[in-house]
Design brief:
Blueprint lengths: L11 H19 L7 H16 L5 H16 L4 H19 L6
Length: 103
Amino acid sequence: MDQKKTKKMQTDTDVKRKAIKQVVAHLKKKITSDYVGSENLKEWLVEIESILAKEEFDIKDYINARKNLNDIIERTLDEEIRFKLRDSWYSLGKALEKKAKIN
């Protein structure tokens, strides 16, 4: 009996959520040390993870989280950390634009 494995069709939401999770994981790896204001980033990470944990995908929540990350970046004094955060902010924007591939 020949069975074909059926792949679950990915939706735009699935693709966006996966991309956002990857950005958050990379961000955690980039920021390894404490710096002045690091508590703001840690709070933001808790916020974005709680948004990701929700079953529904409300794009407004993610856009607001991205705005909040931008505010954190602007208040970060350490230039090297600020550049790392800005790269992640840009990547988060790209993740929000992702769409599922249509075969």
